[in-house]
């Protein structure tokens, strides 16, 4: 399945009062100024597809600062939000979130889903960050990768395990071939048991080092790469994958994004501020002869909570790049 999400509608979620992003492609690049709604779009798609499975992650991924973290899920002082995604088979997954109870010690949020997954979950969130919720399952496989995942103990080990479960040895070989092409010295990536903990290690010819003490760039690149090669027919959402990367690793990420779509049938969303990464993605997409319905750039804008956008296909991607350069250098 090449195209999973066709459009997404957002109402009163995070900083978006209302907005629709339509005509989504196999690869979707979200660009725009800070506060233009890029991250909100990623989170909205992820939550609509994974329901309660991602609720706690999305609440805490920007940092836990008490029950106010729950309130920031809703536009300004709203008590209810709604997200709708239309899928490739023309079915819709609808999601509503509503604050049922406010208090000093806990919040009760009711999550109602209709579509591939239908059900209701009352989510109780305590001031200390504990979350109690009944599971609703997932409407479609969706995976969001950000810097927090790359730096959290256990997260990268889980991605590594998923890569082997879903992709087998061929997925790992593809990962290693890409790493060796840009780093040269990394021979393998393996979990090694240290003090009763399985820790992912980068293995060199004569030594190995824990993933967590490697450079910031290689850590985030590895988390993104493993996600891109681990899954099939899924929705993969990458937030600013260019963080901490030198040009060689950035080019590697661009190559892996296109390959993840073409070889593994994944739909990929990327939020970025990097002109260099967008340019690399455009060049890589052109080399692979992708069409405008397969590769699109969305320049997002947010005014008084209303989300709008300008869409560019591969055939006029140069206009998006010029817009980004104008914004960056003026």
From TrEMBL:
InterPro entries: ATPase_AAA_core, Bact_Antivir_Def_Nuclease, P-loop_NTPase, Rad50/SbcC_AAA, RecF-like. Residues 206-279 form the ATPase AAA-type core domain. One of its GO terms (molecular function) is ATP binding. PANTHER family: ATP/GTP PHOSPHATASE, ATP_GTP PHOSPHATASE. One of its GO terms (biological process) is double-strand break repair. Residues 12-50 form the Rad50/SbcC-type AAA domain. It holds the Pfam family AAA_21. This is SMC domain-containing protein. It comes from the Archaea. Transmembrane segments: none annotated.
